[in-house]
Amino acid sequence: MLHAKKRSREMKQRTMVLAALLLAAQPGVQAATLKVFSSGGMYPVIESLKQDYQQQSGDSIELEAAPSMGDTPQAIPNRLKRHESADVLVMVDYAIKPLEQAKWVDSASHQVLAHSYIAMAVKQGTTPPDISTVAKFKQVLTSASSIAVSDSASGKYIQSKMLDKLQLGPKTAAKITVIPATPVGEAVAQGKAELGFQQNSELKAVKGITIVGLIPPAAQQDTLYGAVITRSSQQQQAAAKFVKYLQSDKARSVMQEKGLTPY
């Protein structure tokens, strides 16, 4: 009787193993390898979540840094124009609209993920200036010898709108250097600029700087980050599963940890 039960258990185990192997062999359930292009604001978040998602889903993530806009070859629109393959794009949300118009992405898959705010940084070891009020912030900008900004959303805003809001003229504008495709914080850490401005989450990922804080509300811009699936992706279901994961409690917690505000 005991031997019969043991044989029965062994047969059941073999059947379960065989069923699992057959299931894994079916094309529809094979593990996917997703290529994800992410701009700087969300890159530290996805980098932190990558291992958890891979363990949870069985899928693999190939994460590549890619600015949401700009003239560099690495910028997402330029990469898509060259027909580079990608499954999911995580980027400045308003920059997704032109990609939808070009029919490079699936509009129905578009999800807003987080709010991001601009912060200011100085080289580590430098006394952080007081930017607690608009008046003090303007004085810091006026006194600075050099200012670094990104070639993406925050930098474009600072150059095209913020200086006008603060009634700062050509003298301040002339101090600005645009840093393409690399973190602004690195330029500050290397002493190439006295002040650096970028999304808070991007600055938090850089060593050798001190983040002074978010710029004052009257000068601030709320930038949304979103995710969207490319039309060219051959793994639409796996891509959709990953985008859904980016809206999970785990992902939202990491966003907060990295300096973003979940949407």
Automatic annotation (TrEMBL):
Alphabetical keyword list: Signal
Signal peptide interval: 1-31
SUPFAM superfamilies to which the protein is assigned, alphabetical: Periplasmic binding protein-like II
InterPro entries for this protein: ModA/WtpA
Name recorded for this polypeptide: ABC transporter substrate-binding protein
Species classification: Bacteria, Pseudomonadati, Pseudomonadota, Gammaproteobacteria, Enterobacterales
